[in-house]
C-alpha cells in the first residue's frame, strides 16, 4: 500500500503537461481533417467546373451547327460566348471559381481554336482588340471587328492595356475615334484611340484615381480603309448620331504566349471525324479539361478544340481553406483544453486528498508518539522497584493521563473522519446560551482553579442542527479553556446569525493554518496541552451544516466566530 501511494505521488502532473500531451492527437486530427478537406474541395471545384465547361462546349458546337456561318463567324461566336466558355485570359472564371491571375491564380487558362483540314487556324480565342461597328441605318446587324495586338504597330497599345489590367480594381475605358477596317475579313486596327481607367473607393462612390492617354497608330494594309467614328450608339432609332458608329471596345481573349503553347500541345489531337473529351492533372491542384469536336462549315471539315485549365488553389480558396483549418484546430484545441482543465481539477482534488491523508497520518503518529514515550519511561521506572509509594502513585497518575490524552487524539481523529460522510441532522429551534452553559459546566473547576473569568452576552434562538452546533461549541470551548492563561477571561457571545467565543492569550499567533488537523497555536508541539484537532473538527462541522468558522487574533485576544 505504501509503495503504491508513493508511486502515485511520483506520477503527479500539471495542466501544462496534460495539455501538451493532448495537443498531439489534436495536431494529428487536424492534419487528417486538412487532408480530407483539401480532397473534398478539389473534388467539388473540378466537378462543378467540369460540368460548366461541358455545357458551354456543347453550346458553342450547337450554335455553330445551327447557324449558316463561315469560319470568321465562328471566331465572332467565340468572342460572343467567351465569358461562358471562359476564354478571357485576363478575367477568366467558371461559375464562382477563379482561374487566372486576375484572382491570384497563375496556372488557370482557357483556350479555343478552330482548325481546318490542313491543321491551320481558321478561328481562335487568341487575345484581340474588339470593336463593334455599324456603318449606316440600313445595316440590320452590327459586326464585331477584331485586331491582333501582337503586330508592331499596336505594341504600345497592348502594353498600356496590360498595365491598366494589372490592378483589378481599375475600371478600363477605351474610346476609338478612328480606325482602319477591312470589311471583307472583319479586321481592324485602331488609329486614334483614348485609353484610360477609373478607380473608386471600396464603397464605389468616391473616385480616387483616374488616367487617360491619347494614342495614334499608323497602319498600312491591303483592303483596309481609314474611317472616322462619328457616333457610339448601336441603336438605329432614338438617336440623331451620324454614321459610322463604333462602341463596346474590348481587349479580351487568351494571352498570346499561353495560346501558342496550348496550340502546340493540342494541335496533334485534332480529329476531323470523331469527337472526344479528356481530363488530366497537370500540376498540384491544377486540372486540365479538353475536348475535340468535328464540325462541318460550308461543306468543309473543321475541328474545334476547347481547353480549360483549372487552378483550384486560388487566393480566395487558399484563404478560405486556411481559415477553416485554423478554426478547426482552434476548436479542437479549446475542447482539449477544457478536457485537460477538467482532468487537472480532478487531479488537484485527488492530490489534495492524498496530501491531507499523508499530513493526517504524520501528525497523528507524531502526537501519539509523545504520550507513548512518556508511558514507556514511567513504566521502566516502576519496574525498577526503587520508587517510593508516593512516586509510584504519581507515575501511575501520569500514565493514566497519557493514556487519556492518546485516547482523546484517536477519538477526535475518528470524529474528524466521520464528519465527511455523516448526513445532516434535523433542524430545530434552541437557545445558544444554554448550549454554552452546558459546554462550560465540566470545565468550571479548571476555570476557578486558574482564576479565569467567564461571561455570557446575548441569548439568541436559532434553528439549526442542534447536535452539530453543540459539537462546534464543545470544541471551541475546549480550545478556549486550554489556551487561556491564568487570570485571563473568556466571553461567549450569542447573536442572531452568529456566535463568538473570545479568550485572552499571552501573545499573537498565526491563525492561517489553525483549521488544519494537528496544527496548534503554540510554538511547540512537544507538550500535551491540546491535540490540535478541536478547531479542525469545529470547521468541518460548521461546513457540514452550511456555516463558516472564522478565526482572528490580536496581541491579547483570540476570537472564534461561527456564522450560521
UniProtKB/TrEMBL annotation:
Superkingdom as given in the UniProt entry: Bacteria
InterPro entries: HATPase_C_sf (IPR036890), HATPase_dom (IPR003594), His_kinase_dom (IPR005467), HisK_dim/P_dom (IPR003661), HisK_dim/P_sf (IPR036097), HssS/ArlS-like (IPR050398)
Pfam family, any one: HisKA
Membrane topology: Multi-pass membrane protein
EC assignment: 2.7.13.3
Transmembrane segments: 21-46, 320-341
GO CC annotations on file: plasma membrane
Catalysed reactions, semicolon-separated: ATP + protein L-histidine = ADP + protein N-phospho-L-histidine
SMART domains: HATPase_c, HisKA
Gene3D superfamilies: 1.10.287.130, Histidine kinase-like ATPase, C-terminal domain (3.30.565.10)
GO molecular function, one term: phosphorelay sensor kinase activity
Cited CDD domains: HisKA
Keywords carried by this UniProt record: ATP-binding, Cell membrane, Kinase, Membrane, Nucleotide-binding, Phosphoprotein, Transferase, Transmembrane, Transmembrane helix, Two-component regulatory system
PROSITE patterns: HIS_KIN (PS50109)
Segments forming domain Histidine kinase: 363-564
EC class: transferase
Location(s) in or outside the cell: Cell membrane
Protein name (record): histidine kinase
Amino acid at each position: 500500500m505504501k509503495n503504491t501511494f508513493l508511486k502515485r505521488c511520483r506520477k503527479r502532473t500539471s495542466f501544462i503537461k496534460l495539455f501538451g500531451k493532448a495537443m498531439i492527437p489534436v495536431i494529428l486530427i487536424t492534419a487528417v481533417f486538412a487532408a480530407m478537406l483539401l480532397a473534398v474541395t478539389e473534388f467539388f471545384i473540378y466537378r462543378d467546373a467540369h460540368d460548366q465547361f461541358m455545357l458551354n462546349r456543347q453550346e458553342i458546337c450547337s450554335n455553330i451547327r445551327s447557324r449558316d456561318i463561315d469560319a470568321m463567324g465562328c471566331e465572332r461566336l467565340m468572342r460572343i460566348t467567351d465569358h461562358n466558355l471562359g476564354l478571357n485570359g485576363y478575367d477568366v472564371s467558371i461559375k464562382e471559381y477563379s482561374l487566372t491571375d486576375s484572382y491570384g491564380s497563375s496556372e488557370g487558362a482557357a483556350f479555343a481554336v478552330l482548325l481546318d483540314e490542313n491543321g491551320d487556324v481558321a478561328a481562335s480565342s487568341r487575345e484581340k482588340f474588339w470593336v463593334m461597328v455599324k456603318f449606316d441605318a440600313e445595316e440590320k446587324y452590327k459586326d464585331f471587328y477584331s485586331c491582333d495586338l501582337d503586330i508592331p504597330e499596336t505594341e504600345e497599345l497592348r502594353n498600356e492595356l496590360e498595365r491598366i489590367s494589372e490592378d483589378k480594381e481599375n475600371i478600363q475605358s477605351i474610346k476609338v475615334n478612328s480606325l482602319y477596317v477591312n470589311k471583307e475579313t472583319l479586321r481592324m486596327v485602331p488609329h486614334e484611340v483614348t485609353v484610360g481607367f477609373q478607380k473608386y473607393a471600396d464603397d464605389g462612390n468616391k473616385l480616387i484615381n483616374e488616367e487617360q492617354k491619347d494614342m495614334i497608330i499608323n497602319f498600312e494594309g491591303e483592303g483596309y480603309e481609314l474611317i472616322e467614328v462619328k457616333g457610339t450608339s448601336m441603336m438605329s432609332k432614338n438617336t440623331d448620331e451620324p454614321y459610322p458608329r463604333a462602341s463596346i471596345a474590348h481587349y479580351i481573349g487568351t494571352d498570346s504566349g499561353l495560346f501558342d503553347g496550348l496550340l502546340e500541345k493540342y494541335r496533334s489531337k485534332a480529329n476531323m471525324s470523331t469527337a472526344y473529351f479528356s481530363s488530366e492533372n497537370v500540376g498540384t491542384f491544377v486540372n486540365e479539361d479538353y475536348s475535340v469536336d468535328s464540325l462541318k462549315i460550308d461543306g468543309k471539315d473543321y475541328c474545334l478544340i476547347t481547353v480549360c485549365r483549372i487552378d483550384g488553389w486560388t487566393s480566395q480558396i487558399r484563404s478560405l481553406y486556411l481559415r477553416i483549418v485554423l478554426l478547426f484546430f482552434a476548436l479542437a484545441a479549446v475542447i482539449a483544453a477544457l478536457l485537460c482543465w477538467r482532468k487537472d481539477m480532478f487531479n488537484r482534488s485527488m492530490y489534495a486528498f492524498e496530501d491531507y491523508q499523508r499530513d493526517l497520518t504524520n501528525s497523528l503518529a507524531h502526537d501519539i508518539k509523545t504520550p507513548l514515550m512518556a508511558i514507556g519511561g514511567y513504566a521502566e521506572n516502576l519496574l525498577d522497584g526503587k520508587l517510593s509509594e508516593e512516586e509510584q502513585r504519581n507515575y501511575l497518575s501520569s500514565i493514566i493521563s497519557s493514556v487519556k490524552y492518546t485516547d482523546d487524539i484517536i477519538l477526535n481523529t475518528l470524529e474528524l473522519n466521520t464528519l465527511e460522510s455523516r448526513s445532516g441532522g434535523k433542524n430545530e429551534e434552541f437557545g445558544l446560551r444554554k448550549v454554552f452553559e452546558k459546554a462550560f459546566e465540566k470545565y468550571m473547576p479548571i476555570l476557578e482553579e486558574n482564576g479565569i473569568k467567564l461571561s455570557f452576552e446575548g441569548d439568541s434562538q436559532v434553528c439549526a442542527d442542534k447536535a452539530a452546533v453543540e459539537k462546534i461549541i464543545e470544541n471551541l470551548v475546549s480550545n478556549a479553556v486550554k489556551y487561556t492563561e491564568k487570570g485571563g477571561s473568556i466571553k461567549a457571545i450569542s447573536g442572531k446569525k452568529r456566535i463568538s467565543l473570545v479568550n485572552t492569550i499571552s501573545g499573537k499567533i498565526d491563525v492561517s493554518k489553525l483549521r488544519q488537523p494537528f496544527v496548534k497555536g503554540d510554538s511547540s508541539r512537544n507538550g500535551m496541552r491540546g491535540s490540535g484537532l478541536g478547531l479542525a473538527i469545529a470547521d468541518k462541522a460548521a461546513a457540514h451544516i452550511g456555516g463558516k468558522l472564522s478565526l482572528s487574533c490580536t496581541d491579547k485576544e483570540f476570537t472564534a466566530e461561527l456564522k450560521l
